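Good morning C.,

I know you're traveling, so I'll keep this short. The sequence:
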Amino acid sequence: MRRLHLLALALTAMVTLAGCAKVPTDPDERADFEAMNDPLEPMNRQIFDFNMVLDRAIMKPVATFYVDNVPEDARKSAHDFLNNLRDPWIFANDVLQGHPHQAADTLGRFMVNSVWGLGGLFDVVASSGGPKYHDNDMGTTFAVWGLPDGPYLMLPFYGPSSPRDVAGKAAAWAAEPSDIVIGSYSTIAVDAHTASDMLDSRAQVLDSMNDVERNSIDFYAAVRSLYRQQRAAQAGQKPAEY
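The C-alpha cells, ready to paste straight into the viewer:
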C-alpha cells in the first residue's frame, strides 16, 4: 500500500508540473517534438533533472560505497536472493504472455533455488547449467496483449516509464506474491525489500550509466532511447536471460 501511495504522489507531481510543458510553435521543431513521442518533454526534463540531483546526492554514492566495500560474492548472493523473490511474479507473467516452457523454467528455478540455494542466496540452477534468470513484468504483458505504450514519461523517483508501464507497476505493487507474503509478517520487511532492490538495481548499472553519461551529448535523450529500446525488445520477444 505504501508503494501505491508513492506512485500516486509521483503521478500527482507529474500533473502539477504538466503546466510547465510548452509545445514548440515552429513547424519543424513541432514535427521533431511529436516524432519523439515525448509530448511532455519539458516537464520530463525537469523531473529527470530532479531525479539526477537525488541520484548524485544519495543513490549513486551509496551504490558506489556498496560496490567498493562489499565483497563481490556477497553482492552476487544478495542479487540472486532478490531475483529469487521476483520469480513467482515473473512466472505469472510468463503464463499470461503464453510462454509455457519459460514459465516452467521459472517455476523450477524458484523451487530448486529456494530449497538447495538456501532461500535463493545461490543460483544453483544457473551455476549447474540450467535455465538462467530472466526478467519479466506486467508492463511487458500489457505490451504482448497489444496495449500501446503511450507517451514517454519520466516519473519522480522512479525514472523512465510510460502509461502502460505505470499501469504495470501499479498491478505489480498490488499483487506481487513476494511482497504479499513478506507484508503479512512485517511492513518494515517490505520496506527493507524495496530498499535492497533499489540498491541492487543501482549497483548493477553503476558502470554502464557512468559510461552513458560520460559519452552522451544529451544524457536525457540517451536514457530515453535506451529505455525505449529495452522495452521494445522485451515486448517483441521472450525476455533475455542473464
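Safe travels,
E.
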